[in-house]
User: What shape does this take?
Amino acid sequence: MSKFKSGFVALIGRTNVGKSTLLNMLVGEKVSATANKVQTTRTAIKGIVNTENSQIIFIDTPGIHKPKTKLNETMVETSFGVLKDIDLILFMIEATSIEIGRGDKRILEKIKESRKKAILLINKIDLIEREKLLSLIKIYSKEYPFEAVIPISSLKEKYRKVILQEIEKNLKEGPAYYNTEEYTDQTMRTLAEETIREKALLLLQDEVPHGILVEVTKMHPRENKQGQEIYDIEATIYCLKNSHKGIIIGKNGEMLKRIGSLARTDMERNFETKINLKTWVKVKEDWQEDNQIVKKFKLNN
Assistant: This one.
């Protein structure tokens, strides 16, 4: 009989490389916000995969980028801070790279410093020819003794088994740290905030989303007249400028309604309960430099 294994696995890479999409696919549930915008993930989010022989706790870190605010600095600190206490690193790069760029070079240096076991995931292989892929594998293999190199397309389910098997090979015997029914350590409140923010990221113009902070101010269950459980959720979307507030609300409130509608649908599916969602928009200038707010994004280890 196989011995049970467990461990903490950090998923690290540059912004917009596909880490959150991959995490959601591996876990089989929505645990991390995904949008085709940089800096979607702001905190180290845990996703838990339970198999017959293992429990793998994934940590999806914020994408590595050049910080311009206290929030950005905290995000990058979180990504690199995770490496100290994990068992294995999944380093994700894009197949379209032709050399090791500045961001990936910085991550490689941190991996070398950590001396941890690492697996290289080369994402978006459907965008390049085989010769370019082989060249990229050669370049990175010279830099670090990766336990494995796995070319993938993170949107495709078929890679899930290969990745999980490779991870299991590199974990030690250990207990299940979480209940096997759990798939994330995030609270319902945090998941609600992330869901609303993700929908805003998907729908809004490029310059607006990065200045958004979502705070759930009220969340409690009740029974409706039919005896069904329903959650009342009230959330405030903070933004940096009055002009942004207008864009988020939209003409006749249409944009805010769309954000709320998409978020509610997602939450009802994820929480398996009815949701009554109310949202407001407020301006909070320079919140990204506010220590009280930014500390929420620090690594809690």
